[in-house]
Write a structure and sequence with these properties.
The chain has 268 residues and is largely without helices or strands.
Length: 268
Amino acid sequence: MRNTIIFAVLMGPLFAGPLLATENADLEKFKKTNACEKCDLRNVMLQGNEMKGAKLEKVNLRDSLLKNTTFDGADLSGSDLRRADLEKASLQNADISGAILRDTDLEKSLLNGTSFKGSDLQDADLENTIAENADFSGSDMRKTNLKRGVFNNSSFEDSQLSEANLKRAVARNANFEDAKLKSTRLTRADLSGANFEDADLSLANFYRATLVGANFKDTNLEGAIFWKADISGADFSKADDLEQDQLTGACGNSETRLPGKLKVPDCE
């Protein structure tokens, strides 16, 4: 009897977690209808499945394995995707607004035209993602990894990007208006034509970044670094807290607009 009790105590926790996939009624409902709003799908394994247009509003997919899945055009608004594995997944033109994606793995995923408006992406991994024409406006992306991602024509308006990593990211004509990018890493990023109007870029690092034609109107640039950056055609004429020593090593052209008597040599 004593041995039986000990075995039950030790093994009990192994069966105290979420139901197995075969016993999850919500999962079975989703498989049959491609819809399961407000369902509990925690810890499910759906890797490699095609779920285009799925209706999963406010669903709980926390800690789920969704690698290589296709969620194009799906509604995942308000969902909980914390720590979910979405590496190499396709979520193009999906609605993921207002969702929680903390520590979510979105590495190498396809996010073209996807809406993350108002979502929580703190500490998420978006390295090598392709997210052109995506909407990240109003989202919380503090310490998010966006390294080598492609974000052309995407909106980060009014988003929180402090301490995020955009090293070697490509975000041509992206909109960062009113965004918070304090201490953000933008080294070697291509930000040609980007709009940083009214953004906070204090202590941001633009080492060897391409900022051709970028707009820095009313931008806070206190302590920002532009060493070896190409600012040809960029407009800094109304930028705040920009000093000459911050432009050491940077280059521009005749169309570069700088405040006061600040200047940079022409790019070779």
